[in-house]
Amino acid sequence: QVQLVESGGGLVQPGGSLRLSCAVSGSFFRLMSMGWYRQAPGKQRELVAIITSGFSTNYADSVKGRFTISRDNAKNTVTLQMNSLKPEDTAVYYCNAHAPLNNQDYWGQGTQVTISS
């Protein structure tokens, strides 16, 4: 069974930085595509960033140049470094793992990120 645990959310002022981490249990992490999604109040969940098993990355236009996704296959972790944060980045951030072997998606419990002065 795959389990995802996020950490690193919190309250930060505009222009600040946060680093989110997601620890993944289970086998075959290196084969999974990993992503970060977010959901703001009253809005649909949206993709923020994704990193494939081959380390290719893709970002939402709204975060390009400010956020960086990375993965450590030795530690089964994926990280989202968020810089130059804006109030509109406020949301619950969710870690996602897509397992190609069974075409299953797994989600973490979410971590709150609040950008406010």
Describe the structure.
- It is built from no helices and 11 strands.
- The relative contact order is 0.32.
- Strands 2, 4, 5, 6, 9, 10 and 11 form a 7-stranded mixed beta sheet that branches.
- With 117 residues, the chain is mainly β.
- It is 0% helix and 53% strand.
- The model has no long low-confidence stretch (mean pLDDT 96).
Summary keywords:
11 strands, seven-stranded mixed sheet, 0% helix, 117 residues
Low-confidence runs: none
Give the overall pLDDT as a whole number: 96
Class based on secondary structure composition and strand pairing: mainly beta
- How many runs of DSSP E, i.e. beta strands? 11
SSE ordering: EEEEEEEEEEE
The percent range for helix content is: under 10%
Write the SSE topology.
Elements lengths: L2 E5 L2 E3 L5 E8 L7 E7 L6 E6 L5 E3 L7 E6 L4 E6 L8 E9 L4 E4 L3 E5 L2
Parallel strand pairs: 2-11
Antiparallel strand pairs: 1-3, 3-8, 4-5, 4-9, 5-6, 7-8, 9-10, 9-11
